[in-house]
Amino acid sequence: MAPIAATDSSATGRVLSVRQSLFAMLGLCFVVMMVAIDQTVVGMALPTIVAELNGFELYAWVGTSYLLTSVIMVPIFGRLGDYYGRRHFVIAAIVVFGAASALCGFSNSMMQLVLARALQGIGGGMLVGTAFACIPDLFPEPRVRLRWQVLFSSAYGLANAIGPTLGGVLTHYAGWRSVFFVNLPISILGLWFISKYLPRIRHMQHGNIHLDWQGAILIAAGLSGLQLFVEFLPTPNMGSMAALAGAGSVVMFVALYFWERHCVDPLLPLDMFRNKSLSALFGLSTLLGFAMFAILFYVPLLLQGGFGQTPQAAGVLITPLVFCITVASIFNSRILVRLPNPNIMLYLGFVLLFISCAGLVVISRSTNVWVMAGILVVGGLGLGFVVPNLTVFGQEIAGRGQLGIATALLQSTRMIGGMLGMAIVGSLVNHYYVQHVKQVVSTHSPGAWAGMLEDPQILMNAADQQKFTGLLHGLGLDGAALIDAARASMVSSIHLGMVLVLLVVVAASFWVRGVEPVRFNRAPGGAKPAAGPAAGTEAVAESSAASPGGDRQEAR
User: Fold this and answer.
1) Are 104 and 117 in contact (CB under 8 A)?
2) Alpha-carbon span 470 to 402, nearest angstrom
3) Closest CA relative to residue 527, chosen from 150, 203, 146, 140
4) pTM (2 decimals)?
């Protein structure tokens, strides 16, 4: 029978106590809850934030600035964790994330918020690059890992279940700043458990350690140029800036390719991309991130800006989406190892996601609320069948020697996809909303008031709406009808963005064929002849917790 406690996966074969394994996992659960809650509550609060701080043109940047800095940090700290152990980096990441959350809550402008979110992304990237890789460190045997993964998935699900509703309630009753301050007590709990119970497990590298800072700078420059290209492209009179940003991005990525080919210890090990299945998983992760983050950030805008719902009502409606991600993840972990071809779960997940995206393309303000909830439930189930499996499959295919960097790359590619999804969908929504509104107001002898309607933040700010309707009443126009027309323009624009997401999901469904069937067969006794640490490394484990009083086992 497979052990239920964690092992240090080192040459000593030491098995940690069940108590320490449980408390270490609790600390990691608080970490994932903090990240998950932040993802869901920020999306719910963002329409209200824009209404108060102004600057709708920076709507997407609140998400993309976080993802951009996260993308850089994930592989760097994934590699540092392999060298020095992940425990100290997890602790530092929690501190950075919590401090940045407080700065987000104190922001007085959209630019301040974007910068604070970028700092928060540094902490988030450190967490993703280290905390998530602690689980296969603690539980290297996949069957044991999947058993403990239920606890991890349950924490993620709990955060997802309460996140949208919590975000809506806090925004409605306590103000949007409270959605950032809610991270602070969770970070304190996670910090206590991690510092006390998470063991220090590391693979010592003989010789000099090389960190590819040049590669990180090139990645940051390339992705920033790509982001600016997407932002400038649909903007009138910004064609030359878009071309310059696009050309700069191409130059940076070409330079990155040649640099990584000759780098001693590259941030992006190109040999991993030569593995057909791993390369396919990286592509799927990018496409999944595009769809998932576009949905998480623009469905709240659809409900609040397009349909006129309150943050609280929108939060309740989105809860089934994120809750079902966890339900599907738990169900997936129970049946995955029993399937003759586990890849079927990827196909099922993308089919369900396709159905949900198709529903989001056609829903309207008059759609029954239960139909809306059903569409989001299907989307949540689809994501729950895909998100965890990309990581599990990648870890299994990469083997022990490249487990850390494979996990980091899967997380990074998903963030890159999310950054592109939010930027591209955001540019489409902003551009076509303005175009639709201009068509509407052109039939009403537009004056200075037309500019107020072209700014989408009026749809989320009740005070601005009253001011607008009062102004137009004095001009003999029906301001309420024009606001309704603007809402219809917002709905049409987001529908167009969801069409693009739908096409991405279709592409991902075909992309799954590139992943070779993954097998979880084990030799008798539950052991798998897995590849050991990479050549030139030596596994070392150190426990930071005190002995729990005699319930620790030493493998002989």
Assistant:
1) yes
2) 64
3) 140
4) 0.73
